[in-house]
Amino acid sequence: MKKLYTIIFSLFITSITFAQYKMTSAGNAYLAGNTHDFIFMNLVNEGNSGENVTWDFTSLQKNGKTLTSKMYAVTSSDSAALACGANIILNENGNLFYFKVTSDEMEQYGATTGNVFTQFDKPCAKLQFPMKYGDKVSEEYSGTAKFKTTENKLSGTCDVIADAYGTLLLPGNIKIENALRVKQTKTFTGSTQKEITYRWYASGVRYPILVIIKYESATQNVYCQTALYAHAGETAATTQCSATENSGNYLSSANVETYPNPYTDKFTLNYKLETACNVKIELIGINGKTVKTVINEAQDKGSNSVEVSSSTYYNPGTYFIKITAGDDIVTRKVVKQ
Questions:
Q1: How much is the pTM?
Q2: Where are the alpha helices (DSSP H) in 77-229?
Q3: Closest CA to 10 of 28, 33, 34
Q4: What whole-number distance in Å separates Cα of residue 314 and Cα of residue 17?
Q5: How far is it, in rounded angstroms, from Cα 151 to Cα 143?
Q6: Of 39, 197, 236, 251, whose CB count within 10 A is highest?
Q7: Which contacts of 189-194 are long-range, i.e. CB under 8 A and separated by 24 or more positions?
């Protein structure tokens, strides 16, 4: 039978903060109505595991293929009868993967891939929330793959471990710090081959930034897929801007607004300080680098308004305005037309 795997068939969807690498169902499990865009790249080695790793994938090149993963509720699908207890369907190029998502875990209940329908009596790849670096889940799965009048029994194990964290370097001078890598190893009863998938996650994105899939046997490793999140540059800027959790002691995120947005030449930034402090405002490019420091000065408590001019030498596209007030950081995305 042809092996089929998903790109974001994610047993672990990870949410990361600066202080701790931890995923939660609320922040990272599959959510109906979401989409996630991937660009397929040349095949590469996954790199090292462990703490404070730097993964250099700057040499990745596009291979011309793309994928948009789509998630929707089972109740909105004509395949609801096949889902067998699942509540979310992942659609990747017409292949459907059925998941049950709760506040505590995420499990795969089945799949429809071409003319083959797979149903698990012991759900595949159970994930318990929350999870952080070093945590591991190991589960046995079993089920049946049906093709017309033929049925084949399936079983094996699925081990998932958050095996590394560090800095992710990507093409286009994109640097994503505080990235968490999750390794999924799936074995098949009666076979010595293993399917191993590596997924990298970072703050500000619900689904994987980079995915590498390979098959491993006693004699060889065969790499078969490398997929990069199409908007990884925005993630780089977000991780840079989210290094400190916003407490609201100096600046409340609810009191920050920009207009117009999108803008042409300039926009206005309004914010309110809860107490006097030093304020630094930066315009951040999509690669996560500061392209302009607007102000860096001490300011009094109260409402403030700053006009941010984006001169003609700044290209149209997505930017981030980052406000650092005392120990608080608030970020807003702005788009130049």
A1: 0.75
A2: 80-83
A3: 28
A4: 30
A5: 10
A6: 236
A7: 189/154, 189/155, 189/156, 192/217, 192/218, 193/217
| Lookup: tokens for 99 | 């998941």
CA distance 327 to 309: 26
Asked if 242 contacts 283 with a C-beta cutoff of 8 angstroms, the reply is no
Type of residue found at 237: A
Cα atoms in the 13 Å half-sphere on the side-chain side of 120: 23
Q: Helix and strand tally (H, E) in the chain?
A: 3, 22
Other beta carbons less than 10 A from residue 58's beta carbon: 12
For residue 319, give both structure tokens.
């930017």
Q: List, for the chain, all residue ranges whose pLDDT scores fall below the cut of 50.
A: 1-5, 9-20
Residue 272 burial by CB count (10 A; 0-12/13-18/19+): exposed, middle or buried? middle
Q: In the numeric block, which tokens belong to residue 249?
A: 């002691």
pLDDT tens digits, one per residue of 148-169: 889 999 999 999 999 999 999 9
Beta carbons within 8 Å of 147's beta carbon, 6+ residues apart: 1, 115, 116
